[in-house]
Design brief:
The chain has helices at about 5-30, 45-55, 65-80, 90-100, 105-130, 135-170. The chain has 6 helices and no strands. About 35% of the residues are buried. The longest helix is centred in the last third of the chain and has 36 residues, at about 135-170. The chain starts with a helix and ends in a 24-residue tail after the last helix. It is mainly α and about 190 residues long. It has one domain.
Amino acid sequence: MRRASVLLRVGVPVAILLELGAFLGSLSGSPVALGEGWGATREPDVGVWLLLGAGCLPLLGLSRAPRAAALLCAGSYVAYILSGYEFGLTLPPMLVALVLAAEGRRLSAWSLAGGCLAATLVWVDGRARGILDPDVGLLVWVAFGAVSAIFFLIPPLIGELLMARRRVRFPEAAPAPEAGLSPSGGRPPRERG
């Protein structure tokens, strides 16, 4: 994870501070209600703080144990969102997906992003199921679906672009592709002669 050191040095503290600020801000505001029938979200309790810590603290070990950090950040997000809290805690898995993809861990990055997106769509379904006005229901699905896709699919895409750029500029220093993603399973191609 040496090549992602700038992402880590800047991204980790920024993500942690922004998540903490978002949580503190959400404590004083009222929950989002997008229309009549919008499902109620769970009131903040001790679980919010535990999941916040479990979602943000693994970022500190992202350079040493990227897969463990990815599992903890994504697991915390999925547990948080499926527990019915207000939408949030997205930055840690977004940052992890970006860093993993930039380091050539494509399968891990896209799996994390897909899992978090799927959990978010389950959350949206739970909130939007009771909306009586079909136009509002459609708007909720389009809005939350688009925002969720942007949140979870753009970071690994940016990571892929960073990895590709690095491979073009510095072929000797670029990470090798993750095994199993290329037809050769990550092995160098054989020379034909």
